[in-house]
């Protein structure tokens, strides 16, 4: 497709510079697809809707742009709703979406939560960091924490291609370790006094159908390869283009797990 390295470089820079709007992945429709042989054994949206029934207070940790939480609040009547977010562009959008539902959105850094002890009836968390003891502190006894996490096997093939090392993905005590999976998270929660209600793990296959899609993806999630740019990694990207030419695509593992934990009634 590209007869020389300059043409490839120009194409990849164009892909890298294409505008990314919050968490809108429509630019990669048909270019980055799920080809997993088995479906994920849980539905996060359906789960949080089920656990949100009859609760009067809820926190969405690391809400991102607030889209998913806004959908939940639209469908549920919850008197007290809170969200946290660290990334400023997401924070602005989250406040625009969530404040009309009466939600308070806090800007946070780190694992501390700006809420009083034993005040919440549900805490939800999709792909955000957390401290099991801090979540327990703000949750009322007998109530639940629902989280979906990205595991340590995610995107390893990409790091192999680029010659990079995956960043630590654990949270709390695991934040400096490379091991972050269902077993580790469940053990950490149990050590903090939680009862495990549900637990699942899944290894999906994400297929990139062209190299430009991969470059755009890495631009959009800068925490995956911290110093990524087309110029810095062009030699590796040339080798990756040869792989796309020979195989037609790149298959990458996307590792997730899901846990519902209940705080002990005595805590």
From TrEMBL:
Any one biological process term the GO annotation gives: methylation
Superkingdom of the organism of origin: Bacteria
Residue ranges of coiled coil: none
Keywords: Methyltransferase, Transferase
GO molecular function: methyltransferase activity
Record-linked PANTHER family: METHYLTRANSFERASE, METHYLTRANSFERASE TYPE 11 DOMAIN-CONTAINING PROTEIN
Protein name: Methyltransferase
Natural source organism: Ktedonospora formicarum
């Amino acid at each position: 497709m590209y007869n020389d390295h300059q043409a490839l470089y120009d194409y990849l820079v164009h892909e890298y510079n294409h505008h990314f709007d919050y968490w809108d992945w429509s630019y990669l429709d048909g270019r980055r697809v799920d080809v997993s042989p088995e479906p994920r054994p849980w539905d996060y949206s359906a789960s949080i809707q089920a656990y949100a029934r009859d609760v009067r207070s809820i926190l969405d940790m690391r809400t991102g742009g607030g889209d998913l939480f806004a959908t939940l609040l639209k469908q549920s009547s919850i008197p007290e709703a809170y969200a946290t977010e660290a990334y400023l562009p997401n924070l602005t959008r989250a406040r625009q979406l969530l404040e009309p539902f009466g939600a308070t959105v806090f800007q946070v850094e780190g694992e501390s939560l700006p809420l009083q002890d034993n005040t919440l009836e549900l805490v939800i968390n999709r792909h955000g960091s957390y401290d099991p003891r801090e979540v327990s502190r703000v949750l009322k006894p007998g109530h639940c924490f629902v989280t979906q996490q990205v595991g340590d096997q995610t995107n390893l093939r990409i790091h192999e291609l680029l010659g990079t090392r995956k960043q630590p993905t654990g949270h709390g005590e695991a934040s400096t370790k490379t091991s972050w999976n269902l077993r580790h998270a469940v053990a950490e929660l149990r050590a903090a006094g939680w009862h495990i209600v549900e637990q699942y793990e899944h290894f999906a296959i994400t297929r990139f159908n062209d190299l430009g899609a991969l470059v755009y993806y890495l631009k959009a999630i800068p925490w995956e390869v911290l110093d990524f740019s087309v110029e810095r990694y062009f030699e590796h990207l040339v080798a990756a283009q040869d792989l796309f030419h020979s195989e037609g695509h790149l298959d990458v593992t996307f590792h997730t797990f899901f846990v519902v934990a209940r705080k002990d009634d005595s805590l």
